[in-house]
Design a protein that fits this description.
This protein is of the alpha/beta class. The chain has one domain: NAD(P)-binding Rossmann-like Domain (Rossmann fold), CATH 3.40.50.720. The structure holds NADP nicotinamide-adenine-dinucleotide phosphate.
């Protein structure tokens, strides 16, 4: 029977590349989005056109009830979720003293709360089967810190703590939990920085370029595969050497 993977925030960017990589690995994939219905449906359609199985499901990952319903929908259509990639995220730049309560709460509830909601929804089946894999998408800013991105960096640092703690808690149940910390990846998320800043960031990257969504998908694909069957609690930086 096919295995089902849920990739949150997979209508665009890194999540979409992850979904396509997992489909190539033979996973049936649940594509999740909050607003970009057309892009999500196109991603699912591309996977189906390539011979894979995929559905697109709208849910705000910050909404626990919506996430539970999404997981139920995925299970009914594709089978129980055995791989969860917590990728959905929001980012933005502001000085610390300009971060509103609403912004602080939203970053935490999407980037960290969203991961918790999704893990809670898929865990009963994983625990029952004593098998499963969770990959959290953090950021190098969660490891190193980032000026004008305090709220974002806090959520990404917390995802690393979540990864390591949960990996220890779930290892006896046969469930692996790992984390990918991307560097600067050329997606919609970073376009707000402008071409000049992106060019400077590429120059600061030892490998001399920005990352691609496919660079991150390859790292997630490794953690998801049997080649990583003895690997848990790890943070893999895919950043072109940015924070070495
Ligand atoms: P992106 O291009 O902005 O795409 C964000 C994705 O997340 C979209 O699919 C979006 O759905 C979805 N999303 C946002 N809020 C959501 C919510 N509340 N519920 C469900 N889905 C939601 O971002 P990206 O660059 O691909 O980033 C993906 C992940 O990698 C994020 O966690 C980000 O923090 C992390 N990351 C990115 C970089 C980078 O340089 N790009 C670096 C380090 C880490 P819609 O299309 O419906 O809006």
């Amino acid at each position: 029977m096919e295995r089902c993977a849920l990739v949150t925030g997979s209508s665009r960017g890194i999540g979409r590349a992850v979904a396509e990589e997992l489909a190539r690995q033979g996973w049936a994939v649940c594509i999740n989005y909050i607003r970009s219905r057309q892009a999500a449906e196109e991603t699912a359609e591309r996977i189906r056109a390539g011979g894979g199985r995929a559905i697109a499901v709208q849910a705000d990952v910050a909404d626990g009830a919506a996430v539970a319903t999404m997981v139920q929908t995925a299970e009914e259509a594709l089978g129980a979720v055995e791989l969860l990639v917590n990728n959905a995220g929001v980012a933005g730049q502001a000085l610390f003293q300009d971060i509103s309560d609403e912004m602080w709460d939203r970053y935490l509830s999407v980037n960290l709360g969203g991961a918790r909601n999704a893990i809670r929804a898929v865990l009963p089946h994983m625990l029952h089967e004593k098998r499963g894999c969770i990959v959290n998408i953090s950021s190098i800013w969660g490891l190193r810190g980032a000026s004008c991105e305090v709220a974002y960096a806090c959520t990404k640092g917390a995802l690393i703590a979540l990864t390591r703690s949960l990996a220890m808690e779930l290892a006896p149940s046969g469930i692996r939990v790992n984390c990918v910390a991307p560097g600067v990846i050329n997606t919609d998320m970073v376009q707000v920085l402008g071409q000049e800043t992106l060019g400077a960031l590429a120059e600061q990257t030892p490998l001399g370029r920005l990352g691609t969504p496919e660079d991150i998908a390859a790292a997630v694909g490794y953690f998801a595969s049997d080649r990583a069957s003895f690997v848990t609690g790890q943070v893999l930086c895919a950043d072109g050497g940015f924070i070495v």
